[in-house]
């Protein structure tokens, strides 16, 4: 049975898995203790639950439970990693290297760091959305203290060569931080094998609750420290004060456990649906997949349908919850900076839709989505003066468009 | 953002979609906006010997509000004299479609398209070009 609208925006957030909710419930009701209360059963219960969640998460990403710092989400983890390293390692240098395609939760802290006297290099990506490792090496100076490269991109799903990047960082004695918000729980992430020193992730992108996330901070080879960005009771080894969000943490732990257990089967099913969706939608004339299809998350597809505008298209596919790189959907009236970084022209960036599948997506939903998008694109092209010109063989670049 | 019923109506059943023969002397064409900005509107009018607009057509690449604004514009244009058409203000479109502030520029584009089409018609028929309002896009 099909229920409309269909949710295909799972890179924005995922639904809460009922198994996660079930695990959280007791901690939202009778087991309400403060994990920092050392002198009664309520506190012990809460602490035990938090410790268990740490183990579940550590097991998913292959680290020690002691290396997990709980936060309010990936935005806070990104801030803590970047600003925390910048402050802690000030005596070693002040230079950070990152990518132009990072999430705002990385780019904006970097801008803040620049205001504080730091230097940040923003590396370009190639037309597939991938980092150039040679450029990375060349950008390193004796003042470089941190390389910050996201694991997988939130708009196009492109996975960066994490092991190659960490090898370069290690060779030069530089810390490596990755925003793995879109990757953890979706693809195998192993901080040891991947050579990661710090890593941000968030529960609500992996079928957990909103408002809780974590920062992995390496304790051995090397021992990494970050300066706290929030002062208070000294929780989380002094790196992040504040009473722990016990039900949220329990939820993140359970989500991690399920991810580990179901990842292989989930990925197989989801990737098959994504591939079918993409195959069908790219039979539409003048449609283009954005970003690498080789190094990509299994559940994302970002497609531009040339000569139709993304927001108009989203209105046409009103039974689908998707997102667009179109400027008309953003407050700034600028099209997606990620798509532009791939070298996409503005008009193609305006014409893009992002489809994000989840473990709850069904084949029936994909069938519906395929038909719905095909119809909407056809309808809007009938309305599009650009499509008419294209069909008449007029070169759109030869027209002098009104400047505004 | 939620769309008003009128925007949805025009988007779902756009009025007067199509193309007039731009080579004809009686047809004025206004092509405004730019693909890079995510909006291109083409509005055309056909004018009879009494300066009455007998037909109007549009095609728009843009958001739902831009499509609705141009669809509404063609409805309003038909039957009006050229002078009456010149008086159409974008704020009237904003009001009729209940456009939110971020969508005002879509209505501005429609007003620009009307004025550009009228100018095209005037120039073709040996009349002096009118001064165009500055696009506030
Ligand atoms: C790559 C990336 N980093 C950071 C965030 C922010 O995560 P949170 O909502 O947990 O703060 C997101 C989610 O939008 C993301 O996709
Ligand atoms: S055309 Fe861009 S918001 Fe309407």
From TrEMBL, chain A:
Binding residues annotated for pyridoxal 5'-phosphate, in chain numbering: 74-75, 154, 182, 202-204, 243
N6-(pyridoxal phosphate)lysine: modified positions: 205
Keywords: 2Fe-2S, Cytoplasm, Iron, Iron-sulfur, Metal-binding, Pyridoxal phosphate, Transferase
InterPro entries: Aminotrans_V_dom, Aminotrans_V_PyrdxlP_BS, Cys_deSase_IscS, Cysteine_dSase, PyrdxlP-dep_Trfase, PyrdxlP-dep_Trfase_major, PyrdxlP-dep_Trfase_small
Single GO BP term: [2Fe-2S] cluster assembly
SUPFAM superfamilies according to UniProt: PLP-dependent transferases
Reported cofactor(s): pyridoxal 5'-phosphate
Family to which this protein belongs: Belongs to the class-V pyridoxal-phosphate-dependent aminotransferase family. NifS/IscS subfamily.
Matching PANTHER family: CYSTEINE DESULFURASE, CYSTEINE DESULFURYLASE FAMILY MEMBER
Subunit (UniProt): Homodimer. Forms a heterotetramer with IscU, interacts with other sulfur acceptors.
Protein's recorded name: Cysteine desulfurase IscS
Protein's organism: Pontibacter mangrovi
From TrEMBL, chain B:
Family annotation (SUPFAM superfamilies): SufE/NifU
Keyword Metal-binding: yes
GO BP annotation list: iron-sulfur cluster assembly
Family matches, as InterPro entries: ISCU, NIF_FeS_clus_asmbl_NifU_N
Every NIF system FeS cluster assembly NifU N-terminal domain range: 2-125
Domain of life: Bacteria
Keyword terms, alphabetized: Iron, Iron-sulfur, Metal-binding
Molecular function in Gene Ontology: iron ion binding; iron-sulfur cluster binding
Keyword flag ATP-binding: no
Family statement: Belongs to the NifU family.
NCBIfam families: iscU
Record function comment: A scaffold on which IscS assembles Fe-S clusters. It is likely that Fe-S cluster coordination is flexible as the role of this complex is to build and then hand off Fe-S clusters.
Name of the featured protein: Iron-sulfur cluster assembly scaffold protein IscU
């Amino acid at each position: 049975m099909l229920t409309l609208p269909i949710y295909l925006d799972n890179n924005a957030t995922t639904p809460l898995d009922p198994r996660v909710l079930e695990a959280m419930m007791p901690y939202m009701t009778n087991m309400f203790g403060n994990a920092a209360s050392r002198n009664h059963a309520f506190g012990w219960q809460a602490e035990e639950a938090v410790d268990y969640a740490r183990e579940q998460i550590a097991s998913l990403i292959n680290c020690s439970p002691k290396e997990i710092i709980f936060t309010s989400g990936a935005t806070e983890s990104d801030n803590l990693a970047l600003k925390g390293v910048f402050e802690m390692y000030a005596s070693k240098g002040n230079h950070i290297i990152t990518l132009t395609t990072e999430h705002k939760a990385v780019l904006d802290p970097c801008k803040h760091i620049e205001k504080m006297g730091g230097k940040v290099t923003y590396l370009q990506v190639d037309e597939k959305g991938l980092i150039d490792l040679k450029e990375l090496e060349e950008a390193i100076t004796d003042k470089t203290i941190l390389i910050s490269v996201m694991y997988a991109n939130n708009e196009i799903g492109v996975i960066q060569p994490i092991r190659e990047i960490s090898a370069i960082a290690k060779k030069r004695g530089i810390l490596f931080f990755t925003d793995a918000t879109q990757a953890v729980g979706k693809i195998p992430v192993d901080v040891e094998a991947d050579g990661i020193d710090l890593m941000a992730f968030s529960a609500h992108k992996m079928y957990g609750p909103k408002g809780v996330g974590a920062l992995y901070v390496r304790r051995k080879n090397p021992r990494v420290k970050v300066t706290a960005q929030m002062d208070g009771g000294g929780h989380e080894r002094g790196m992040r004060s504040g009473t722990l969000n016990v039900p949220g943490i329990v939820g993140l732990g359970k989500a991690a456990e399920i991810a580990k257990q179901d990842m292989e089967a989930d990925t197989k099913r989801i990737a098959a649906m994504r591939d079918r969706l993409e195959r069908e939608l790219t039979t539409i004339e003048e449609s283009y997949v954005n970003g690498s299809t080789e190094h990509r998350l299994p559940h994302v597809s970002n497609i531009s349908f040339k000569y139709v505008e993304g927001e108009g298209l989203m209105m046409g596919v009103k039974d689908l919850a998707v997102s667009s790189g179109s400027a008309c959907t953003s407050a700034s009236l600028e099209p997606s900076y990620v798509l532009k970084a791939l070298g996409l022209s503005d008009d193609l960036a305006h014409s893009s839709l992002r489809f994000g599948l989840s473990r709850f997506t069904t084949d029936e939903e994909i069938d519906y989505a395929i038909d719905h998008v095909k119809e909407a694109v056809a309808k809007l092209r009938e309305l599009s003066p650009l499509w008419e010109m294209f069909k008449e063989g007029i070169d759109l670049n030869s027209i002098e468009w009104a400047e505004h | 953002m939620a769309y008003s019923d009128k925007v949805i109506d025009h988007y779902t059943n756009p009025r007067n979609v199509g193309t007039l023969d731009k080579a004809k002397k009686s047809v004025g064409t206004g092509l405004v906006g730019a693909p890079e900005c995510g909006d291109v509107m083409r509005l055309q009018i056909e004018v009879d010997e009494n300066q009455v607009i007998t037909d109007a057509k549009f095609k728009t690449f843009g958001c739902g509000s831009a499509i609705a604004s141009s669809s509404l514009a063609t409805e309003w244009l038909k039957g009006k004299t050229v002078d009456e058409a010149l008086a159409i203000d974008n704020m009237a479109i904003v009001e009729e479609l209940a456009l939110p502030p971020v969508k005002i520029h879509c209505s501005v584009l429609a007003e620009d398209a009307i004025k550009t089409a009228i100018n095209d018609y005037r120039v073709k028929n040996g009349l002096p070009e009118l001064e165009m309002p500055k696009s506030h896009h």
